Here is the input.
Amino acid sequence: MPAITGKEYMDRLKNREIDLWHNGEKVKDILEHPAFKGVIKSQASLYDRQHDEDIKDVMTYSSPLTGDAVGTSYLQPKTIEDLIKRRKMFQHWASMSGGMLGRSPDYMNTVLMSLAASAKLLKGKTNCFPKRLIDFYEKAREEDFSFTHTFISPQVNRSQLYFEDSKEPIAAKIIDETEEGLVIQGARLLATQGGITDEIIVFSPGGVTDKAFAFAFAIPSDTDGLRFISRDSFVGGDIVYDYPLSSRFEESDSIVVFDHVIVPWERVFFYHHLQVSNTFKNESAFTPFTLHQIVSRQVVKTKFMLGLAESIVDTINIREYPHVQEMMAELITAYETMTALLIKAESNAKKDAFGLMCPEVAPLQVATSTFTKVYPRIADIVQLLGSSGMVSIPTQVDFESEIRPDLDQYLQSATLEAKDRVQLFRLAWDATMSAFGSRQTQYERFFLGNPNRLVRELYKSYSYELTKHMDYVKRFLS
Ligand SMILES: Cc1cc2nc3c(=O)[nH]c(=O)nc-3n(C[C@H](O)[C@H](O)[C@H](O)COP(=O)(O)OP(=O)(O)OC[C@H]3O[C@@H](n4cnc5c(N)ncnc54)[C@H](O)[C@@H]3O)c2cc1C
Here is the structure.
Protein backbone atom coordinates (compact mmCIF):
# COMPACT_ATOMS: atom_id res chain seq x y z
CA MET A 1 0.00 0.00 0.00
CA PRO A 2 1.88 3.14 -1.18
CA ALA A 3 0.81 6.75 -0.28
CA ILE A 4 -2.39 6.24 1.70
CA THR A 5 -5.67 8.15 1.74
CA GLY A 6 -7.29 9.60 4.83
CA LYS A 7 -9.73 6.71 4.93
CA GLU A 8 -6.89 4.18 4.89
CA TYR A 9 -5.22 5.99 7.78
CA MET A 10 -8.48 5.97 9.77
CA ASP A 11 -9.31 2.34 8.93
CA ARG A 12 -5.89 1.23 10.11
CA LEU A 13 -6.29 3.11 13.38
CA LYS A 14 -9.75 1.67 13.93
CA ASN A 15 -8.45 -1.87 13.44
CA ARG A 16 -5.64 -1.49 15.96
CA GLU A 17 -6.31 -2.28 19.58
CA ILE A 18 -4.25 0.52 21.06
CA ASP A 19 -4.10 0.74 24.86
CA LEU A 20 -4.78 4.47 25.06
CA TRP A 21 -6.08 6.06 28.24
CA HIS A 22 -7.81 9.39 28.65
CA ASN A 23 -9.36 10.82 31.83
CA GLY A 24 -9.23 7.52 33.70
CA GLU A 25 -10.84 5.50 30.90
CA LYS A 26 -9.53 3.27 28.16
CA VAL A 27 -10.41 4.80 24.81
CA LYS A 28 -12.77 2.45 22.98
CA ASP A 29 -13.80 4.00 19.68
CA ILE A 30 -10.90 6.27 18.85
CA LEU A 31 -12.49 7.70 15.70
CA GLU A 32 -15.47 8.95 17.73
CA HIS A 33 -13.69 9.99 20.94
CA PRO A 34 -14.11 13.74 21.60
CA ALA A 35 -10.42 14.17 22.47
CA PHE A 36 -9.09 12.54 19.31
CA LYS A 37 -11.68 12.59 16.53
CA GLY A 38 -10.94 16.17 15.38
CA VAL A 39 -7.21 15.73 14.95
CA ILE A 40 -7.64 12.31 13.34
CA LYS A 41 -9.96 13.84 10.73
CA SER A 42 -7.49 16.66 10.11
CA GLN A 43 -4.64 14.22 9.74
CA ALA A 44 -6.78 12.17 7.33
CA SER A 45 -7.29 15.27 5.21
CA LEU A 46 -3.50 15.65 4.96
CA TYR A 47 -3.23 12.12 3.58
CA ASP A 48 -6.04 12.82 1.10
CA ARG A 49 -4.03 15.69 -0.36
CA GLN A 50 -1.45 13.11 -1.49
CA HIS A 51 -3.97 12.03 -4.13
CA ASP A 52 -5.29 15.36 -5.39
CA GLU A 53 -4.34 16.04 -9.01
CA ASP A 54 -3.41 19.69 -8.38
CA ILE A 55 -0.67 18.84 -5.87
CA LYS A 56 0.16 15.14 -6.00
CA ASP A 57 3.42 15.79 -7.86
CA VAL A 58 4.62 17.74 -4.82
CA MET A 59 3.16 15.42 -2.22
CA THR A 60 4.51 12.16 -3.67
CA TYR A 61 7.36 10.66 -5.68
CA SER A 62 8.05 7.29 -7.32
CA SER A 63 9.18 4.59 -4.96
CA PRO A 64 12.67 3.37 -5.90
CA LEU A 65 11.42 -0.17 -5.10
CA THR A 66 8.06 -0.34 -6.86
CA GLY A 67 7.60 2.85 -8.87
CA ASP A 68 4.37 3.51 -6.92
CA ALA A 69 3.64 6.99 -5.60
CA VAL A 70 4.95 7.31 -2.02
CA GLY A 71 5.03 10.31 0.37
CA THR A 72 7.61 13.01 -0.38
CA SER A 73 8.68 13.27 3.26
CA TYR A 74 10.28 9.82 2.78
CA LEU A 75 12.33 11.10 -0.16
CA GLN A 76 16.10 10.90 0.33
CA PRO A 77 17.05 14.08 -1.53
CA LYS A 78 19.90 13.83 -4.01
CA THR A 79 19.48 17.26 -5.64
CA ILE A 80 18.52 20.79 -4.64
CA GLU A 81 15.25 20.25 -6.51
CA ASP A 82 14.51 17.25 -4.26
CA LEU A 83 15.22 19.36 -1.20
CA ILE A 84 12.92 22.13 -2.38
CA LYS A 85 10.23 19.59 -3.25
CA ARG A 86 10.46 18.32 0.34
CA ARG A 87 10.03 21.87 1.68
CA LYS A 88 7.04 22.54 -0.57
CA MET A 89 5.44 19.34 0.66
CA PHE A 90 6.04 20.22 4.34
CA GLN A 91 4.68 23.71 3.83
CA HIS A 92 1.58 22.51 2.03
CA TRP A 93 0.63 20.25 4.93
CA ALA A 94 1.57 22.95 7.46
CA SER A 95 -0.59 25.50 5.67
CA MET A 96 -3.65 23.32 6.31
CA SER A 97 -3.36 23.92 10.08
CA GLY A 98 -1.63 27.31 10.21
CA GLY A 99 1.45 25.35 11.34
CA MET A 100 -0.39 24.29 14.53
CA LEU A 101 -0.11 20.58 13.80
CA GLY A 102 3.42 20.20 15.11
CA ARG A 103 3.65 16.48 14.52
CA SER A 104 2.04 16.08 11.12
CA PRO A 105 3.39 12.77 9.74
CA ASP A 106 6.14 14.45 7.68
CA TYR A 107 8.03 15.16 10.93
CA MET A 108 8.73 11.56 11.90
CA ASN A 109 8.93 10.38 8.28
CA THR A 110 11.81 12.82 7.93
CA VAL A 111 13.45 11.55 11.11
CA LEU A 112 13.27 7.96 9.89
CA MET A 113 14.45 8.89 6.39
CA SER A 114 17.51 10.65 7.77
CA LEU A 115 18.42 7.91 10.26
CA ALA A 116 18.06 5.17 7.65
CA ALA A 117 20.23 7.15 5.22
CA SER A 118 22.90 7.21 7.95
CA ALA A 119 22.67 3.49 8.73
CA LYS A 120 26.30 2.92 7.68
CA LEU A 121 27.32 4.50 11.01
CA LEU A 122 26.02 1.30 12.63
CA LYS A 123 27.93 -1.03 10.33
CA GLY A 124 30.21 -3.60 11.95
CA LYS A 125 29.36 -2.50 15.50
CA THR A 126 28.28 -4.91 18.21
CA ASN A 127 24.51 -5.10 18.70
CA CYS A 128 23.89 -2.69 15.83
CA PHE A 129 21.70 -3.62 12.88
CA PRO A 130 21.91 -1.18 9.99
CA LYS A 131 20.00 -3.43 7.58
CA ARG A 132 17.03 -3.64 9.92
CA LEU A 133 16.87 0.14 10.05
CA ILE A 134 16.96 0.40 6.26
CA ASP A 135 14.39 -2.37 5.85
CA PHE A 136 12.12 -0.68 8.33
CA TYR A 137 12.42 2.68 6.56
CA GLU A 138 11.49 1.01 3.28
CA LYS A 139 8.51 -0.75 4.85
CA ALA A 140 7.32 2.50 6.42
CA ARG A 141 7.70 4.35 3.12
CA GLU A 142 5.86 1.69 1.11
CA GLU A 143 3.02 1.39 3.64
CA ASP A 144 2.95 5.09 4.58
CA PHE A 145 3.12 4.50 8.32
CA SER A 146 2.28 7.26 10.78
CA PHE A 147 4.51 7.60 13.84
CA THR A 148 4.69 9.00 17.28
CA HIS A 149 8.00 8.96 19.13
CA THR A 150 9.63 9.33 22.48
CA PHE A 151 13.23 10.38 22.99
CA ILE A 152 13.30 11.42 26.68
CA SER A 153 13.00 9.89 30.16
CA PRO A 154 10.46 10.83 32.84
CA GLN A 155 11.13 14.12 34.60
CA VAL A 156 11.98 12.64 38.00
CA ASN A 157 15.34 14.14 38.89
CA ARG A 158 17.31 16.14 36.35
CA SER A 159 20.43 16.67 38.45
CA GLN A 160 23.58 15.72 36.56
CA LEU A 161 24.51 13.55 39.55
CA TYR A 162 21.28 11.54 39.43
CA PHE A 163 21.41 7.83 38.64
CA GLU A 164 18.18 5.90 38.81
CA ASP A 165 18.39 3.19 41.47
CA SER A 166 14.70 2.49 41.91
CA LYS A 167 13.89 -1.23 42.36
CA GLU A 168 11.13 -1.01 39.76
CA PRO A 169 12.37 0.81 36.65
CA ILE A 170 11.03 4.34 36.12
CA ALA A 171 12.77 5.28 32.88
CA ALA A 172 12.21 2.61 30.23
CA LYS A 173 15.13 0.15 30.11
CA ILE A 174 16.11 -3.25 28.82
CA ILE A 175 15.34 -5.80 31.53
CA ASP A 176 15.85 -8.97 29.51
CA GLU A 177 16.71 -10.48 26.13
CA THR A 178 14.77 -13.48 24.85
CA GLU A 179 14.68 -15.40 21.59
CA GLU A 180 11.83 -13.18 20.51
CA GLY A 181 13.49 -9.86 21.27
CA LEU A 182 14.34 -7.22 23.87
CA VAL A 183 12.15 -6.88 26.92
CA ILE A 184 11.49 -3.26 27.93
CA GLN A 185 10.08 -2.03 31.23
CA GLY A 186 9.44 1.53 32.42
CA ALA A 187 8.16 4.78 30.95
CA ARG A 188 9.12 7.50 28.48
CA LEU A 189 7.97 11.03 27.70
CA LEU A 190 6.33 12.66 25.85
CA ALA A 191 4.63 11.20 22.82
CA THR A 192 2.74 13.88 20.94
CA GLN A 193 0.04 12.06 18.94
CA GLY A 194 0.73 8.99 21.15
CA GLY A 195 -2.01 6.43 20.50
CA ILE A 196 -3.22 7.89 17.20
CA THR A 197 -0.44 6.60 14.95
CA ASP A 198 0.45 3.21 13.48
CA GLU A 199 3.80 2.93 15.23
CA ILE A 200 6.08 4.45 17.83
CA ILE A 201 9.81 5.06 17.36
CA VAL A 202 11.86 4.97 20.55
CA PHE A 203 15.43 6.27 20.88
CA SER A 204 17.69 6.58 23.92
CA PRO A 205 17.88 10.01 25.47
CA GLY A 206 21.30 11.70 25.14
CA GLY A 207 24.08 11.21 27.68
CA VAL A 208 23.31 7.61 28.65
CA THR A 209 25.86 5.95 30.97
CA ASP A 210 24.11 2.63 31.64
CA LYS A 211 23.76 0.33 28.65
CA ALA A 212 20.32 -0.87 29.79
CA PHE A 213 19.08 2.55 28.62
CA ALA A 214 20.93 2.42 25.28
CA PHE A 215 18.62 1.30 22.48
CA ALA A 216 16.62 2.28 19.42
CA PHE A 217 13.60 0.50 18.02
CA ALA A 218 10.16 0.87 16.47
CA ILE A 219 7.04 -1.10 17.34
CA PRO A 220 3.33 -0.97 16.41
CA SER A 221 1.21 1.18 18.73
CA ASP A 222 -0.88 -1.86 19.66
CA THR A 223 2.04 -4.00 20.84
CA ASP A 224 1.22 -6.02 23.97
CA GLY A 225 2.19 -4.20 27.18
CA LEU A 226 2.51 -0.79 25.49
CA ARG A 227 0.24 1.85 27.02
CA PHE A 228 -0.34 5.51 26.16
CA ILE A 229 -1.63 7.77 28.94
CA SER A 230 -2.91 10.92 27.31
CA ARG A 231 -3.06 14.23 29.14
CA ASP A 232 -6.39 16.01 29.62
CA SER A 233 -7.76 17.13 26.28
CA PHE A 234 -7.54 20.77 25.20
CA VAL A 235 -10.38 20.39 22.70
CA GLY A 236 -12.79 23.17 23.66
CA GLY A 237 -15.68 21.57 21.76
CA ASP A 238 -16.80 20.37 18.33
CA ILE A 239 -18.02 23.66 16.90
CA VAL A 240 -15.38 25.05 14.55
CA TYR A 241 -16.68 28.62 14.87
CA ASP A 242 -16.14 28.49 18.65
CA TYR A 243 -12.90 26.50 18.70
CA PRO A 244 -11.34 27.02 15.27
CA LEU A 245 -8.06 25.37 16.22
CA SER A 246 -8.60 23.01 19.13
CA SER A 247 -11.60 21.32 17.48
CA ARG A 248 -9.33 20.27 14.61
CA PHE A 249 -5.67 20.29 15.55
CA GLU A 250 -5.36 19.25 19.22
CA GLU A 251 -2.71 16.54 18.92
CA SER A 252 -2.63 15.37 22.57
CA ASP A 253 0.56 14.35 24.38
CA SER A 254 1.00 11.01 26.12
CA ILE A 255 3.15 9.34 28.69
CA VAL A 256 4.29 6.01 27.27
CA VAL A 257 4.43 2.96 29.53
CA PHE A 258 6.28 -0.22 28.58
CA ASP A 259 5.06 -3.11 30.70
CA HIS A 260 7.30 -6.06 29.77
CA VAL A 261 7.05 -5.05 26.13
CA ILE A 262 8.80 -7.46 23.79
CA VAL A 263 10.48 -5.67 20.91
CA PRO A 264 10.97 -8.22 18.11
CA TRP A 265 14.58 -8.47 17.00
CA GLU A 266 13.82 -7.32 13.46
CA ARG A 267 12.61 -4.03 14.98
CA VAL A 268 15.72 -3.41 17.13
CA PHE A 269 18.14 -1.00 15.40
CA PHE A 270 20.78 -1.06 18.15
CA TYR A 271 21.03 -1.90 21.84
CA HIS A 272 23.54 -2.11 24.69
CA HIS A 273 25.99 0.13 22.82
CA LEU A 274 26.75 3.29 24.79
CA GLN A 275 28.92 4.99 22.19
CA VAL A 276 26.38 4.50 19.38
CA SER A 277 23.51 5.44 21.63
CA ASN A 278 25.17 8.73 22.57
CA THR A 279 26.48 9.69 19.13
CA PHE A 280 24.35 8.15 16.38
CA LYS A 281 21.69 10.87 16.22
CA ASN A 282 24.18 13.74 16.22
CA GLU A 283 26.55 12.16 13.70
CA SER A 284 23.72 11.10 11.41
CA ALA A 285 21.73 13.22 8.95
CA PHE A 286 19.05 13.65 11.66
CA THR A 287 19.75 17.26 12.65
CA PRO A 288 19.83 19.06 9.28
CA PHE A 289 16.86 17.23 7.82
CA THR A 290 14.68 17.32 10.92
CA LEU A 291 15.42 21.03 11.36
CA HIS A 292 14.60 21.60 7.69
CA GLN A 293 11.12 20.14 8.26
CA ILE A 294 10.68 22.08 11.50
CA VAL A 295 11.71 25.46 10.10
CA SER A 296 9.55 24.94 7.01
CA ARG A 297 6.54 24.53 9.31
CA GLN A 298 7.57 27.39 11.61
CA VAL A 299 7.77 29.76 8.62
CA VAL A 300 4.16 28.89 7.75
CA LYS A 301 3.11 29.35 11.37
CA THR A 302 4.82 32.75 11.55
CA LYS A 303 3.07 33.82 8.35
CA PHE A 304 -0.25 32.67 9.80
CA MET A 305 0.29 34.64 13.03
CA LEU A 306 1.41 37.70 11.07
CA GLY A 307 -1.77 37.53 9.00
CA LEU A 308 -3.82 37.09 12.16
CA ALA A 309 -2.19 40.11 13.83
CA GLU A 310 -2.68 42.33 10.79
CA SER A 311 -6.34 41.21 10.58
CA ILE A 312 -6.82 42.42 14.17
CA VAL A 313 -5.10 45.72 13.37
CA ASP A 314 -7.35 46.17 10.36
CA THR A 315 -10.55 45.10 12.07
CA ILE A 316 -10.38 47.57 14.96
CA ASN A 317 -8.45 50.16 12.95
CA ILE A 318 -5.35 50.66 15.13
CA ARG A 319 -2.79 51.00 12.33
CA GLU A 320 -2.04 54.66 13.05
CA TYR A 321 -0.42 54.03 16.47
CA PRO A 322 3.41 53.95 16.50
CA HIS A 323 3.67 51.13 19.04
CA VAL A 324 1.25 49.04 16.96
CA GLN A 325 3.46 49.62 13.92
CA GLU A 326 6.49 48.63 15.99
CA MET A 327 4.86 45.38 17.07
CA MET A 328 3.83 44.60 13.50
CA ALA A 329 7.41 45.31 12.40
CA GLU A 330 8.61 42.80 15.01
CA LEU A 331 6.35 40.16 13.46
CA ILE A 332 7.47 41.03 9.94
CA THR A 333 11.09 40.74 11.11
CA ALA A 334 10.37 37.33 12.58
CA TYR A 335 8.75 36.11 9.37
CA GLU A 336 11.40 37.52 7.03
CA THR A 337 14.24 36.25 9.24
CA MET A 338 12.85 32.73 9.46
CA THR A 339 12.24 32.67 5.70
CA ALA A 340 15.73 33.98 4.93
CA LEU A 341 17.34 31.39 7.19
CA LEU A 342 15.42 28.60 5.50
CA ILE A 343 16.39 29.81 2.02
CA LYS A 344 20.03 30.25 3.05
CA ALA A 345 20.11 26.68 4.36
CA GLU A 346 18.75 25.40 1.05
CA SER A 347 20.95 27.63 -1.14
CA ASN A 348 24.09 26.39 0.64
CA ALA A 349 23.04 22.72 0.57
CA LYS A 350 25.81 20.25 -0.21
CA LYS A 351 26.13 16.50 -0.64
CA ASP A 352 26.80 14.98 2.78
CA ALA A 353 28.72 11.85 3.81
CA PHE A 354 25.57 9.78 3.18
CA GLY A 355 25.03 10.99 -0.39
CA LEU A 356 22.11 13.23 0.55
CA MET A 357 21.68 16.82 -0.59
CA CYS A 358 21.95 18.27 2.89
CA PRO A 359 20.79 21.78 3.87
CA GLU A 360 23.30 23.97 5.69
CA VAL A 361 22.68 23.29 9.34
CA ALA A 362 23.76 26.54 11.07
CA PRO A 363 20.94 28.74 9.67
CA LEU A 364 18.43 26.06 10.65
CA GLN A 365 19.88 25.85 14.17
CA VAL A 366 19.69 29.64 14.43
CA ALA A 367 16.06 29.56 13.25
CA THR A 368 14.90 26.81 15.63
CA SER A 369 16.67 28.17 18.67
CA THR A 370 15.51 31.73 17.93
CA PHE A 371 11.95 30.52 17.49
CA THR A 372 11.84 29.25 21.09
CA LYS A 373 11.96 32.94 22.13
CA VAL A 374 10.29 34.52 19.12
CA TYR A 375 7.13 32.41 19.18
CA PRO A 376 6.13 33.34 22.77
CA ARG A 377 6.65 36.99 21.75
CA ILE A 378 4.47 36.50 18.66
CA ALA A 379 1.68 35.12 20.87
CA ASP A 380 2.25 38.04 23.26
CA ILE A 381 1.87 40.60 20.45
CA VAL A 382 -1.38 39.04 19.23
CA GLN A 383 -2.74 39.33 22.78
CA LEU A 384 -1.53 42.93 23.15
CA LEU A 385 -3.12 43.95 19.86
CA GLY A 386 -6.39 42.16 20.58
CA SER A 387 -6.70 43.32 24.22
CA SER A 388 -10.32 43.01 25.45
CA GLY A 389 -11.36 41.67 22.05
CA MET A 390 -9.55 38.46 23.01
CA VAL A 391 -12.17 37.84 25.70
CA SER A 392 -15.25 39.50 24.22
CA ILE A 393 -15.97 36.33 22.34
CA PRO A 394 -19.53 34.99 22.56
CA THR A 395 -20.19 31.64 20.94
CA GLN A 396 -22.07 30.50 17.87
CA VAL A 397 -25.06 29.61 20.08
CA ASP A 398 -25.15 33.21 21.36
CA PHE A 399 -25.39 34.41 17.76
CA GLU A 400 -28.29 32.01 17.18
CA SER A 401 -30.20 33.24 20.26
CA GLU A 402 -32.53 36.16 20.81
CA ILE A 403 -29.66 38.36 22.04
CA ARG A 404 -28.21 38.48 18.52
CA PRO A 405 -29.31 42.11 17.91
CA ASP A 406 -27.26 43.21 20.94
CA LEU A 407 -24.22 41.29 19.67
CA ASP A 408 -24.63 42.72 16.16
CA GLN A 409 -24.82 46.23 17.51
CA TYR A 410 -22.13 46.18 20.19
CA LEU A 411 -19.56 43.80 18.74
CA GLN A 412 -19.35 45.26 15.26
CA SER A 413 -15.96 46.64 14.25
CA ALA A 414 -14.54 49.18 11.82
CA THR A 415 -14.40 46.65 8.99
CA LEU A 416 -16.38 43.58 10.05
CA GLU A 417 -19.86 42.67 11.13
CA ALA A 418 -20.11 41.32 14.67
CA LYS A 419 -20.21 37.63 13.80
CA ASP A 420 -17.16 37.84 11.54
CA ARG A 421 -15.26 39.97 14.00
CA VAL A 422 -15.92 37.53 16.84
CA GLN A 423 -14.86 34.64 14.60
CA LEU A 424 -11.52 36.36 14.01
CA PHE A 425 -11.02 37.08 17.71
CA ARG A 426 -11.97 33.53 18.66
CA LEU A 427 -9.20 32.37 16.33
CA ALA A 428 -6.72 34.76 18.01
CA TRP A 429 -7.85 33.51 21.43
CA ASP A 430 -7.56 29.85 20.43
CA ALA A 431 -4.11 30.45 18.95
CA THR A 432 -2.67 32.18 22.01
CA MET A 433 -4.84 32.08 25.15
CA SER A 434 -6.98 28.93 25.28
CA ALA A 435 -5.47 25.75 26.75
CA PHE A 436 -4.71 24.79 23.14
CA GLY A 437 -3.03 28.15 22.50
CA SER A 438 -0.85 28.10 25.61
CA ARG A 439 0.28 24.56 24.81
CA GLN A 440 1.35 25.84 21.38
CA THR A 441 3.70 28.27 23.12
CA GLN A 442 5.07 25.56 25.40
CA TYR A 443 5.45 23.26 22.41
CA GLU A 444 7.51 25.76 20.41
CA ARG A 445 9.71 26.37 23.46
CA PHE A 446 10.46 22.76 24.27
CA PHE A 447 9.52 20.15 21.69
CA LEU A 448 13.05 19.95 20.30
CA GLY A 449 14.71 19.85 23.70
CA ASN A 450 15.77 22.40 26.26
CA PRO A 451 16.32 25.75 24.49
CA ASN A 452 19.62 26.26 26.32
CA ARG A 453 20.87 22.94 24.92
CA LEU A 454 19.91 24.05 21.40
CA VAL A 455 22.01 27.21 21.64
CA ARG A 456 24.92 25.32 23.19
CA GLU A 457 24.82 22.87 20.28
CA LEU A 458 24.78 25.78 17.83
CA TYR A 459 27.86 27.28 19.49
CA LYS A 460 29.73 23.96 19.50
CA SER A 461 28.93 23.02 15.93
CA TYR A 462 29.77 26.52 14.67
CA SER A 463 33.42 26.15 15.70
CA TYR A 464 34.64 25.64 12.08
CA GLU A 465 33.24 29.07 11.13
CA LEU A 466 34.55 30.71 14.30
CA THR A 467 38.08 29.53 13.50
CA LYS A 468 37.82 31.30 10.13
CA HIS A 469 36.62 34.48 11.83
CA MET A 470 39.47 34.34 14.35
CA ASP A 471 41.90 33.97 11.43
CA TYR A 472 40.38 37.07 9.90
CA VAL A 473 41.06 39.02 13.09
CA LYS A 474 44.62 37.63 13.21
CA ARG A 475 45.22 38.75 9.62
CA PHE A 476 43.74 42.13 10.44
CA LEU A 477 46.10 42.58 13.39
CA SER A 478 49.16 41.66 11.40
C1 LIG B 1 4.10 20.19 24.13
C2 LIG B 1 5.28 19.27 24.12
C3 LIG B 1 5.31 18.20 23.23
C4 LIG B 1 6.40 17.30 23.24
N1 LIG B 1 6.39 16.23 22.39
C5 LIG B 1 7.40 15.32 22.44
C6 LIG B 1 7.40 14.14 21.63
O1 LIG B 1 6.50 13.94 20.81
N2 LIG B 1 8.40 13.26 21.78
C7 LIG B 1 9.43 13.45 22.66
O2 LIG B 1 10.32 12.61 22.76
N3 LIG B 1 9.45 14.55 23.46
C8 LIG B 1 8.47 15.48 23.36
N4 LIG B 1 8.49 16.58 24.19
C9 LIG B 1 9.50 16.62 25.24
C10 LIG B 1 10.63 17.55 24.96
O3 LIG B 1 11.59 16.86 24.19
C11 LIG B 1 11.15 17.97 26.32
O4 LIG B 1 10.22 18.85 26.90
C12 LIG B 1 12.49 18.64 26.26
O5 LIG B 1 13.47 17.75 25.81
C13 LIG B 1 12.91 19.14 27.65
O6 LIG B 1 12.93 18.09 28.54
P1 LIG B 1 12.03 18.13 29.85
O7 LIG B 1 10.66 18.60 29.49
O8 LIG B 1 12.13 16.83 30.52
O9 LIG B 1 12.64 19.28 30.69
P2 LIG B 1 13.81 19.14 31.78
O10 LIG B 1 15.01 18.55 31.12
O11 LIG B 1 13.30 18.41 32.97
O12 LIG B 1 14.06 20.66 32.13
C14 LIG B 1 13.34 21.38 33.15
C15 LIG B 1 14.08 22.67 33.43
O13 LIG B 1 15.37 22.39 33.98
C16 LIG B 1 16.42 22.86 33.15
N5 LIG B 1 17.38 21.76 32.96
C17 LIG B 1 17.17 20.44 33.13
N6 LIG B 1 18.28 19.72 32.87
C18 LIG B 1 19.21 20.59 32.49
C19 LIG B 1 20.56 20.46 32.07
N7 LIG B 1 21.18 19.27 32.00
N8 LIG B 1 21.24 21.58 31.73
C20 LIG B 1 20.64 22.79 31.81
N9 LIG B 1 19.34 22.99 32.20
C21 LIG B 1 18.65 21.90 32.55
C22 LIG B 1 15.76 23.20 31.81
O14 LIG B 1 16.36 24.31 31.18
C23 LIG B 1 14.32 23.49 32.18
O15 LIG B 1 14.13 24.86 32.46
C24 LIG B 1 7.45 17.50 24.16
C25 LIG B 1 7.42 18.59 25.04
C26 LIG B 1 6.36 19.47 25.02
C27 LIG B 1 6.35 20.63 25.99
